[in-house]
């Protein structure tokens, strides 16, 4: 991708192309225990020692709950037309099921109404990782009751907001929250092991399709998608063992959730992990219910993954070779910056016959931003976006139906286990004062979108 230093403009993508920016409830809202909200698994998880950098808590975050009007004005000022945000399940249903919370519901009406007033199109994510803590006590994503709880929540949101919101995203990155939260213990709820991972995977594969069906039934003219994290997987060497290790990681990171959604079932390659997963599937007899005809597929890409064989890693027998070890350019998260790999992973997902349309529902990078004399010169982030947008344009010009690009993220926010230390925003936040300062990358986007 040599040409990414050249300037491009949004108009090259055509008039219909949708430009958006994204936030998520836990990461931005704050007001974690007020206005009737119940605790989420991130409220409880962040109290466990050693789980989150600096013992940071998502309690106040960006105070979006009180400052949503200002933040939506900023979305508008930067020239975006789409605003993607998530609904916090425990703000709507504090106990996960049962009684609803009027003040929480009213908040989302205010946000949606303000979007509509400003001519911003809302894209609502139903699950961006904040399960009600009350449901986690009953097993959370591993429970056989999960689908029942989720269906009730989704139906409620569809009925309550469906007359105003037409664009729905069912899950945010099922591989992300099942692996980090139920296998590795690095994210909430902090569970580990295959006995948690398998049922969580299966519930997520079912929930993404079931959620789609509920929205389709209850919201006339809905435009429905769900998101998948994805990364090009590159073998460290051309040794057979590394190539096979890369294949296994590709199954997990890229294929595990999209293939059931497309009606292909779980991948059927020769991989012990899949045999075990199939056992859950068989005993739960739900294969057909994992399929749903999504209007679009949300792709979320940040970096490629280089993989090496490692016999010590149970079942997967593979490990990542970090960008820093390979001495390639990377972001503050240690993630390789590689726009060419963004292009290739989009092509990989487009190669599925029944993917009709792709929207890039997240892409962005964290850097060690410095506020100097009221300015943030985040050239690296500008370069990241510029490079990735060139790659996207190339994919589009080759005939891939990419219909939108949403930048991660509007403001610096609570970056999960990194706390407030990783800054991905187009707008800087001073978390002491909540002062917002548009970064140079924000101004770059404004020029790119030509406001
Ligand atoms: C998640 C975001 C997160 C971002 C950067 C995505 O996986 O959807 O919530 O902040 O990556 O880590």
In short:
This protein has 451 residues and is α/β, with parallel strands linked by helices. 39% of the residues lie in helices and 16% in strands.
Describe this structure as you would to a colleague.
- By secondary structure, this protein is of the alpha/beta class.
- The chain has one domain (10-450): TIM Barrel.
- The protein is built from 16 helices and 15 strands.
- The protein has an 8-stranded parallel β-barrel with strand order 1-2-3-4-5-7-10-13, surrounded by 5 helices.
- Strand 11 and strand 12 (375-376) form a beta hairpin.
- The radius of gyration is 21 Å and the shape is globular.
- Residues 24, 27, 172-173, 176, 229, 300, 362, 408, 415, 424 line the site of beta-D-glucopyranose.
Topology:
Blueprint: E1 18-22, H1 25-28, H2 41-45, H3 64-78, E2 82-86, H4 89-92, H5 102-117, E3 121-127, H6 133-137, H7 146-161, E4 167-171, H8 174-182, H9 194-218, E5 223-230, E6 233-235, H10 240-255, H11 258-261, H12 272-284, E7 296-301, E8 305-309, E9 318-320, H13 323-326, H14 339-350, E10 358-362, E11 371-372, E12 375-376, H15 379-397, E13 402-408, E14 427-430, E15 435-438, H16 440-449
Parallel strand pairs: 1-2, 1-13, 2-3, 3-4, 4-5, 5-7, 6-8, 7-10, 10-13
Antiparallel strand pairs: 8-9, 11-12, 14-15
